[in-house]
Automatic annotation (TrEMBL):
Homodimer. Pfam families: Prenyltransf. GO terms for biological process: polyprenol biosynthetic process. This is Isoprenyl transferase.
Length: 253
């Protein structure tokens, strides 16, 4: 399995289409409230937009799509909403995996899955196994995920694996233990819903990612909105600490 080294060290090739897109899908509740609907109606619509996003990524040649579906902090929501979100998750796994598989999508779920019901855990394992051979798009759903949790579990596994290196561990020792070890770091991070924060998403991996914030609520984030984010990304110059001249070769580096 390929383990990607940090893009903060090696400048990745500038590509017209971001290779890895990570998204905080926010604004479902407000979308529903605007329509005098219960919050769950926003989440149901949100699942539809996930489908559309996957289609867009397949069409545009994005290789990795990582979606924040449920944070480790979202357990703090009213019990009723948490239960409904879990039911939606189960339903989506039951109904969507076959189509994902047919379309060459490999599905992974990252996060602390131990807190989920056994039935949900089994569905996750089955979906991951079923799609493990697919290579067209890597779709990762972060569920009960927290960036700090991810770093801590990686530290724990690293220190267990090489206790003799205490005091001399390096970034490269920890990276293979992070949940997203199989993917290059995100090129483009999108957060819908108007909030401009990371909310404990991929803390380690977003070190040099390009950020795109939009007030558009997730259930309204269609392919045209996604193209706006890609266009914005294409206008950035990614320097990774270097000077602009070094990258364009216009002056002595
Ligand atoms: C994001 O939408 C979905 C989840 C966190 C599960 P929200 O439910 O946070 O929607 P708002 O922010 O209340 O509008
Ligand atoms: C972040 O959304 C997590 C997901 C989209 C799953 P929230 O809406 O829960 O984020 P905060 O707590 O308002 O920052
Ligand atoms: Mg929110």
């Amino acid at each position: 399995m390929a383990i990607f080294s940090s893009s903060t060290r090696d400048v990745p090739q500038v590509a017209a289409v971001p290779r890895h897109v990570a998204v905080i899908m926010d604004g479902n509740g407000r979308w529903a409230k605007k329509r005098f609907l219960p919050r769950v109606a926003g989440h149901v619509k949100g699942v539809e937009l996930v489908r559309e996003m996957v289609r867009s990524c397949l069409e545009r040649g994005v290789q990795y799509l990582t979606l924040f579906a449920f944070s480790s902090e979202n357990w703090r929501r009213p019990q009723e909403e948490v239960t409904l979100l879990m039911q939606l998750f189960v339903k989506a796994l039951e109904q969507e995996v076959e189509k994902l598989d047919r379309n060459g999508v490999r599905l992974r779920i990252i996060g602390d899955l131990s807190r989920f019901e056994p039935r949900l855990q089994a569905l996750i394992r089955k979906a991951e196994e079923r799609t493990a051979g697919n290579t067209r798009l890597d779709l990762t759903i972060a569920a009960n995920y927290g960036g700090r949790w991810d770093i801590m579990q990686a530290v724990n596994r690293m220190t267990e694996a090489m206790p003799e290196k205490a005091g001399q561990w390096e970034e490269a020792d920890m990276e293979p233990h992070l949940s997203m070890h199989f993917a290059p770091e995100p090129d483009l991070f999108i957060r819908t819903g108007g909030e401009e924060r990371i909310s404990n998403f991929l803390l380690w991996q977003l070190a040099y990612t390009e950020f795109f914030f939009t007030p558009t609520l997730w259930p309204d984030f269609d392919a045209a909105e996604f193209d706006k984010a890609i266009l914005s990304y294409q206008q950035r110059e990614r320097r990774f600490g270097r000077t602009s001249e070094q990258l364009t070769g216009k002056a002595d580096a």
